[in-house]
Design a protein that fits this description.
Elements (H helix, E strand, L loop, with lengths): L1 E2 L7 H11 L9 H13 L3 E5 L2 H11 L7 E4 L5 H9 L3 E4 L11 H14 L5 E5 L8 H11 L2 E5 L7 E5 L12 E5 L8 E5 L12 E5 L2 H11 L3 E2 L16 E2 L10 H11 L2 H19 L13 E2 L5 E4 L3 H13 L2 E2 L11 H4 L9 H9 E4 L7 H15 L4
Parallel strand pairs: 1-15, 3-4, 3-5, 5-6, 6-9
Antiparallel strand pairs: 2-10, 7-8, 7-13, 9-10, 11-12, 14-16
Helix pairs in contact: 1-8, 2-8, 3-4, 3-7, 5-6, 9-13
The structure holds pyridoxal-5'-phosphate (PLP).
């Protein structure tokens, strides 16, 4: 079976992990801070906090932004359940904003309408979690201007978008020749958000086995997340609330968790980070080949918006209707291709259905879900396998050329 996504492990990765195994620290050693520093540098963020999963990163990001019982946070229904679960962990309520059918991302016009309504009802969200679905970057400047107007905080769930970047208009030097210059900004820079989180699960862009990271430009948020990552305990004398009772002293200040990443995982992540640009480039090449090989078939192919470079984590195609999707899905699985569907709208899971969401709550997300299939895409997918998938699709539609 050719899966929809797969990691690549090199001898360099193995050597990096082995050297940690032979060292004095398996966890809480020097490799985790190096990994954090390198990811922050790669993205252009002030700092980063490594944790054992993106789910943990989302949880402590929500808590650091003050999300709690009595609050509400909004996100997209077209994501992995972890995005919404993290909101519920804090005791806050979750609500969903429908997607648009060209990027499959949250529809910002819908977000704006929902915010206007929420303001009159006094139910504005404290946090909005945007997801850069499949690596496609949301218009973060529009989101940020809404955040200023309606006073909510922004978390970017960039689990799909490690290595994605977007162009921003250079507004700071609005004089002379710089006036019309666009700058490239990496997702993770948090230029237009409070916190960005990454996943390093093996199906994602780079992997640490399991792992995640939260990036921010706000030192206070980073400190809070660091505290929450490790039991709410600090060992830094300058941060103590009470006076140190001796050199052994540490204190717990909030109710935290053990969400630490091990140095073993960090070594793998750090080694993989060296190949992130290569991986994104290979994914983009594979998507381009699909685009040209599939254009004559009755399918909607993913579009990449202007002014950005998508990490191309997924390649979702849309059939014309749900019955075709079902038959095509089964045909491809039978032929040995591990196609998948990303995602069933989160609120359609039985757990969420109990929370007062109903069929038709987000019509476009449901339509997308009925028609979508994610084709295999990963750095080591070879051209011959891609051609075999395309042949299956051509046979299915009876339009072999
Ligand atoms: C994979 C994923 C997560 C969860 O990542 P883990 O590292 O497995 O916890 C969260 N959000 C999105 C959009 C994801 O794709």
């Amino acid at each position: 079976m050719i899966p929809y996504g797969r990691h690549e492990i090199t001898q360099q990765d193995i050597d990096a992990v082995t050297s940690v195994l032979n060292s004095a620290f398996l966890t809480q050693g020097p490799v985790v801070p190096s990994f954090e520093a390198e990811v922050a540098k790669f993205c252009g963020a002030y700092g980063a906090v490594a944790v054992n999963s993106a789910t943990s990163a989302l949880h402590i990001a929500c808590l650091a932004l003050g999300l709690q019982r009595g609050d509400v946070a909004w996100t997209t229904p077209n994501s992995f359940v972890a995005t919404a679960n993290a909101i519920l962990y804090t005791g806050a309520k979750v609500d969903f904003v429908d997607i648009e059918l060209d990027s499959y991302n949250m529809d910002i016009a819908q977000l704006e309408r929902k915010l206007e309504l929420a303001e009159t009802n006094g139910e504005l969200p404290r946090v909005v979690i945007v997801v850069h679905f499949a690596g496609q970057v949301m218009d973060m400047m529009r989101i940020q201007s809404l955040a200023k107007k309606y006073r909510f905080k922004i978390i970017e769930d960039a689990s799909h978008a490690v290595g994605s970047s977007y162009q921003v208009r250079n507004s700071t030097e609005a004089t002379g020749s710089n006036k019309d210059q666009n700058n490239w900004v990496k997702v993770g820079s948090c230029r237009n958000s409070d916190i960005t989180i990454f996943s390093f699960h093996p199906v994602k862009i780079i992997t640490s086995g399991e792992g995640g990271m939260a990036l921010s430009n706000d030192p206070e948020l980073l400190d809070r997340m660091r505290l929450l990552r490790a039991h709410g305990v600090t060992k830094e004398p300058e941060n103590f609330i009470t006076q140190a009772l001796g050199p052994w002293y540490y204190e717990q200040q909030v109710l935290g968790f053990n969400y630490r990443m091990t140095d073993i995982h960090a070594a793998l992540g750090l080694s993989q980070l060296k190949r992130v640009e290569l991986y994104v480039e290979r994914r983009i090449q594979i998507a381009r080949k699909y685009n040209s090989l599939l254009q004559h078939l009755p399918l909607n192919l993913p579009q990449t918006a202007d002014l950005q470079r998508s990490s191309t984590h997924l390649y979702p195609i849309l059939c014309n209707d749900r019955n075709t999707r079902r038959r095509l899905f089964e045909t491809l699985r039978t032929a040995g291709f591990g196609v998948n569907v990303h995602y069933m709208p989160i609120y359609q899971h039985p757990f969420y259905a109990r929370l007062n969401f109903y069929p038709g709550y987000c019509l476009k997300a449901e339509e997308y879900y009925d028609r979508a299939i994610s084709l295999p895409i990963f750095p080591n997918l070879c051209f011959q396998d891609q051609v075999r998938i395309v042949e299956q699709l051509e046979n299915f539609f009876g339009s072999r050329k």
